[in-house]
Structures are given as C-alpha cells and as structure tokens.
Amino acid sequence: MRIVWTDRALLDLRAAATRRSTPGADLRLLENVVSSIERLRDFPLSGRAVPELEDELFREVIARDYRVLDWIAGEDIEILAVIHGKRLLTWDLLGEAEAVYFVSLNRRPVVPVAAGSC
Q1: Are strands 76-84 and 2-5 parallel, antiparallel or unpaired?
Q2: What is the tens place of the pLDDT at every residue in 69-106?
Q3: What pLDDT shows up at residue 55?
Q4: Which of 16, 23, 57, 89 makes the best surface tag, with the fewest CB within 10 Å?
Q5: Distant-in-sequence, close-in-space partners of 85: CB < 8 Å, separation ≥ 6
Q6: Radius of gyration (C-alpha) of the chain in whole angstroms
Q7: Residue 115 confidence class, pLDDT cut points 50, 70, 90
Q8: In what order do the strands lie in the sheet with 76-84?
Q9: CA-CA distance, 110 to 15, in Å (whole number)?
Q10: Domain locations along the chain
Q11: CATH code for the domain defined by 2-87
C-alpha cells in the first residue's frame, strides 16, 4: 500500500517539528514519525483504532508524544493529522476526510468534543 500525506497532516508535522527548541530535535521527531508509520505499508491495520471516533476505519500510530491519525482509502493509507497526545481530538482536526467519509456512508458524525473547545 502507498502512504499519502494530506496537506493538513504535513502542516501538523511541520508545526510540531518547529516547536522543538533543542538543536536536532526537529529532525529526530520527523524521523521518528516517518519510521513509525512505515510499517503501515505492510500492516495497514497495525495502528490502534482511534478511541474517540468509535470507528475502526480511523486508526492511529503513536510516535513519541504525537498521535498520527490515518485511514485506508482504497489502495492508499492517508495520513490525516499529527496531533500532540495531550490534545483533545475533534472532527475538525481530520479535515475533509470526515466529510467524505460520512457522505459516503450517509451517516452523521459523532462529535467527541465540541469544535473550538481545545
């Protein structure tokens, strides 16, 4: 399977890396995140289900202090967001994936936390 980063996830990763103040810490974070998700190519379900979303389609891999959220979209694994482990997860962190997912299933999202409350 191919790993595809959404724009949102790339922005999240860049922001996380630039917050590091120790020299070289930004590169170590990037390397850790990338190496943590590489196993998804061969084992796409190796991450755990995201507890707040109550749906097995949304998965996450823990990389240091960060949660790397993904889902399987056809033959691709889309990386949806990279969020700090202490941050509350809201649907708006998943970007357009949430809209595509619920329209395709004709379902309404269960909002785990009110948007804007983090």
Answers
A1: parallel
A2: 998 888 899 998 899 988 877 766 666 555 555 544 44
A3: 76
A4: 23
A5: 62, 65, 66, 67
A6: 14
A7: very low
A8: 2-5, 76-84, 66-73, 58-63, 48-49
A9: 27
A10: 2-87
A11: 3.30.2310.20
Per the prediction, the chain carries an average pLDDT of 79
Q: Do residues 13 and 82 touch, judged by C-beta distance below 8 A?
A: yes
**Token code pair at residue 28:** 């170590």
18 Cβ contact partners less than 8 Å away, ≥ 6 residues apart = 26
Kind and range of the H or E element at 13?
A: helix 7-18
Give the largest CA-CA distance in the chain. Answer: 48
- SS3 letters for 62-103? EECCEEEEEEEECCEEEEEEEEECCCCCCHHHHCHHHHHHHH
Return the higher-pLDDT residue of 64 and 68: 68
Residue with tokens 């097995």: 56
44: helix, strand or coil: coil
Which tokens in the block code for residue 54?
A: 């109550």
